[in-house]
Design goal:
By secondary structure, the protein is α+β, with helices and mostly antiparallel strands. The chain has helices spanning 2-15, 23-26, 57-62, 140-145, 206-216, and strands at residues 34-43, 67-80, 84-105, 112-137, 149-166, 173-175, 181-183, 185-200, 220-231, 245-255. The strands form 2 sheets. An 8-stranded antiparallel β-barrel has the order 1-2-3-4-5-8-9-10. The chain has a two-stranded antiparallel sheet with strand order 6-7. A hairpin with a 6-residue loop joins strand 3 and strand 4.
């Protein structure tokens, strides 16, 4: 009798349906307060836009090809209402190399370059933009209806450091649009703006998205593209070297 009862219990346990995972564990979403981006794209500073001659000094020294801008941003999302409103910081780096020209007359700050002769020495221009911006991401359709595209916009200030150096590490001299020559380093204040669209990747693989959220606290992962304008021109100054640009950037973003 005891054997029959034990056998009946085992059969009943085997036939019992599996207990579903609690709903709270399946749909767990960690708090979302921050976003980070890493992005890359072509960049050509608008130095020659100040000059009436063509080609301008930038094109003569560095050619017409764009250099690669690398940027990193971090933002705090302080308000969520039909999207996410945040404030962020950005840091970028860009450089371009070329050949130095010989002096037709004079030297140093009084050098008049001879654009038909190069010295064989390398020269480079480097740009490091810092930005402070507000950003709004319209992610309400993605959160409510799983629509994968998230448009966004940014607006703020940029403070752009720049320096030109020779192959030996010394700072070069730079010709301004006014005709004056100055020591080749400086920093320009300006406005910056961007418009972009981000593709929410975790919509296409919800399982992987839940795993990232539960283990690393990453709410969403995006591929994105944006048009960006940087007016690093001393807020319209006629005596500043204009190192801003209008271009595009693409990259990877995380919200957490």
């Amino acid at each position: 009798m005891t054997l029959r009862l034990a056998f009946a219990v085992l059969v009943a346990l085997a036939a019992r349906p599996a207990v579903a995972q609690p709903l709270g564990e399946e749909s767990y979403v960690s708090p979302q307060n921050f976003a980070a981006e890493v992005k890359f794209g072509p960049y050509t500073p608008n130095i020659d836009g100040e000059f009436a001659t063509s080609p301008g000094p930038y094109a003569r020294y560095f050619g017409n090809d764009s250099g690669l801008m690398m940027q990193y941003t971090f933002e705090y999302q302080f308000l969520r209402r039909f999207g996410a409103l945040g404030a962020g910081l950005g840091l970028g780096y860009w450089s371009k190399s070329g050949k130095a020209f010989a002096c037709k007359s004079g030297s140093g700050l009084s050098c008049v370059p001879d654009f038909t002769k190069t010295t064989g020495d390398d020269t480079s221009l480097q740009i490091l933009p810092l930005s402070l911006f507000l950003v709004y991401r319209f992610d309400w359709p993605a959160e409510q209806f799983r629509f994968p595209l998230v448009p966004y916009g940014k607006f703020g200030l940029t403070y752009t450091f720049w320096w030109a150096d020779k192959g030996n590490g010394k700072v070069s001299d730079v010709i301004l649009a006014s005709g004056a020559t100055e020591h080749g380093r400086g920093a320009q204040l300006g406005l910056t703006a961007a418009l972009g669209a981000a593709l929410m990747l975790d919509i296409f693989d919800p399982g992987a998205g839940h795993e990232l959220d539960s283990t690393l606290g990453i709410n969403h992962t995006y591929l994105f593209w944006e048009w960006v304008w940087s007016g690093a021109d001393g807020l319209g100054s006629n005596t500043a070297l204009h190192v801003g640009a209008s271009s595009w950037l693409a990259g990877l973003a995380f919200e957490f």
